[in-house]
Fold this protein.
Amino acid sequence: MKEGQVRIPSGCAISGLIDKTGKRMSGEAIIRSISVMRDRSNGLGGGFAAYGIYPEYKDYYALHIFYEHTAAKKSCEEFLERHFDIINLSKIPTRRMKEITDEPLIWRYFVTPLPTKLAESQLDEREFVARCVFRVNTTINGAYIFSGGKNMGVFKGVGYPEDVGRFYRLEEYEGYCFTAHGRYPTNTPGWWGGAHPFALLDYAVVHNGEISSYDANRRAIEMYGYKCTLQTDTEVITYIVDYLHRRKGLSFDEIASVIAAPFWQTIEAMPPEERETSEYLRNVFAAQLITGPFSILVGFEGGLMALNDRLKLRSMVVAEKDDIVYVASEEAAIRMIEPNLAKVWSPGGGQPVIVRVNGGER
Amino acid sequence: MNISAANMDFKQLNEQIKTAVGNVCISHCCGQRFIGRGFKDKTITIHGTPGNALGAYLDGATIEVRGNTQDAVGDTMNNGKIIVHGNAGDALGYAMRGGSIFVRDDAGYRTGIHMKQYQDRKPVIVVGGKVGSFLGEYLAGGLIVVLGIGTEDTPVGNFTGTGMHGGRIFIRTNKELTGLPAQVTAEIAGPEEMSEILPLLSEFCSLFGVAADDLIKDSYYVLKPNAKNPYQQLYTAN
């Protein structure tokens, strides 16, 4: 089969749901939701982020790691032992399936930074962990940390998303928030590490679209110590979110008006105070403006943000029923798991929908 | 004929609709794409949420949806009718060239962009609620009516009619319309212009059980391409 002989009409899919009271639910629903949009992906990537799934280890960073070979595992574990107290480690449980092949070794470690190492580094704890993740991902050949937050985890791979979910036994986990992605890679061949979500610490991003500012964003973010290793636009979005939220202390509302900044002509028409804020954010964080089509879900500890690009070049539907808020590329993906919705709407381009558990601030 | 679409993929569902004799009623629809694409002569009733590109290239058939629809309803539609008892997604009636679409509630971004008309073919979109930005962008022909029922604000987003060079857009609102591009003129519709949309308003009202009297006596803006032709000599003398 050659290019030109087959057309695959796909375009990525995202879905997510969050319980505003923090009540935990099984991963079954998110698998069923994303499966409705199977035609949007092409089997080259699927994945999930799940929040609230490790309450028994909630004070420890949960590192999910792909190893291409045992030598990588050995080097990586040596590194982890030098920097962290590892209180638990195991293979991530998976299910044998004919749809999922060529899986790497997939391991999980619950860790906390060694106090001496942390003190020596003169960094705050989260920065220490983030730097260790980058160190492993850029210097240990064949090892890739794809998830590293507290009380959350990313589960991803090559395959259709519903198959990837079953592979990881996601239905056996319980969390208060889940996001999902079905992939149709546009610029890269599609491998396990390149599937969505992309995560750093507790931030995890799923993305439908293809941003045109990738390289400008990449060059800007690499100046702050981030290393983009995968040539994938979603990776850079994740680091921008981490930079703006964790390091710069912006709120998610402010982050939305940086990455999906209104047009200057729209800003000019705003009331004075709002105009001043918007001008400030556009000017100071000009290099973090993301252009081109995107619809993203950003999961974080205690919340979820849904955002479209300012021209709304990708679809996104939000719905509510009781305490649960749903977001998906297609309404059908929500109706599959909750046919009787109290409210359904499509947010405008650049207008974030931010849901926080119990009205929390972070 | 009744078809349950539960757990059915779009190819299978469309094949069954195609081979069905007479009119079709689909239940448990959930995201199946391309329903009714290119159909000339059936009436298809859908319960549930049909997938993208509902009625694409529709050529005379009627589709009625008891629920919301997704993106690209009536894409490049040529003839026929689509009735939506709910919302429509983005790019409703994209590049439509004939037939009519009635949406009871809201529609998304890029409603009716690139529509065109030729001789007796004149596409029509009527949206009961509000629409997103880029309404009627690059409009070359046909008629779009936005009624703004249930909204206090202007029922359109930004960049309405950008690049418009044919057709008409009617917008029902008491608010002043601002931010329109230079290629478009906006005036309050007079009796002659209103006569163009009165039959559509009464059809909308009878389809969705809305009282016609209020809608008819309200004030509408009519948007037309600027006759001074601002595109003149944009690229070459013409």
About this structure: Residues 55-148 of chain A form a domain with the Alpha-Beta Plaits fold (CATH 3.30.70.260). DSSP finds eleven helices and 18 strands in chain A. The first strand of chain A starts at residue 13 and ends at 19. Residues 125-139 of chain A form the longest helix (15 residues).
